[in-house]
């Protein structure tokens, strides 16, 4: 397949509220709906919607939430044959609270099925037959095994650090472990919180200097309203502005960016800066609707990009 993913998944309960509450405050829920989500599966779904053949592996429970995850992947034409169903366990899920400005906070219920994925359950043949291996490095041990397999077989690797260092450490991936994994990575794309926590600085030049001790691939930083910046192996800098839109919900914008970036850069052969601009357009499109899966198909993405 084109892209094989190992990482986080979830069922998201989206609650629209009048305002985000402060400490000891309250808000009024205006509407609520349930959608498939999880940053890892969101990235892969975006890639699949752009025409990539994709597969995914993670652990889910045999509960209703797990069945919803599997069903959503199959509906998006993502190969779910390697997904591991853990009897009697609870599937990872989230509650996402969004205000009228599109700002949000997320409450995560890890359950116990997700962390039960074992290293030996990662299929070497499937990764070896892929063009790109994608992970957010969770769960850590199976993800690192996937990265090692990919590098051994010449498969391109992308590590998208979707959360801050504190969350990664809480899920079993220490700073030292994350940095050690970077030697297997062709594209390292941390979120702002992850980048600053990992390097201990907000100075991008210093971030690059620190990370270069561990990673000789592309460093790709998404910076919200400031767009994105990348550094190739020679530390040449590339920038892409964000696409201005009237944001309804920013949930999943970063996921859309990564899924579309991989398609543009590795599958369509775009140069780095053009791939970043294409990814920015897809991320902007996602912000114009509700939910992390409000991401474009190929026709919508190309139209939005050209405009």
Give an account of the 3D structure.
This protein has 307 residues and is an alpha/beta fold. It has eleven helices and 15 strands. The chain has a nine-stranded mixed beta sheet, sandwiched between helices. A four-stranded mixed beta sheet has the order 3-2-8-9. A hairpin with a 5-residue loop joins strand 14 (228-231) and strand 15.
Chart the SSEs and their pairings.
Blueprint: E1 3-6, E2 10-17, E3 29-37, H1 39-49, E4 54-57, E5 59-61, H2 64-75, E6 78-79, E7 84-86, E8 93-98, E9 104-109, H3 124-128, E10 132-135, H4 140-152, E11 156-159, H5 165-170, H6 175-181, E12 187-188, H7 192-199, H8 204-211, E13 218-222, E14 228-231, E15 237-240, H9 253-267, H10 272-286, H11 298-306
Parallel strand pairs: 1-4, 1-10, 2-8, 4-6, 5-7, 10-11, 11-12, 12-13
Antiparallel strand pairs: 2-3, 8-9, 13-14, 14-15
Features of the shown structure:
single chain; 307 residues; alpha/beta; nine-stranded mixed sheet; 11 helices; 36% helix; globular
Task: Give the distance, in angstroms, between the N- and C-terminal Cα atoms.
Answer: 31 Å
Give the spatial strand order of the biggest sheet: 6-4-1-10-11-12-13-14-15
Tell me the overall shape: globular
Class computed from helices, strands and strand pairing: alpha/beta
The Rg value, from CA coordinates, equals: 18 Å
**Helix fraction?**
25-40%
Number of separate strands? 15
Strand fraction equals 15-25%
- The helix count comes to 11
| Biggest sheet layout | 9 strands, mixed
Elements, N to C (H/E): EEEHEEHEEEEHEHEHHEHHEEEHHH
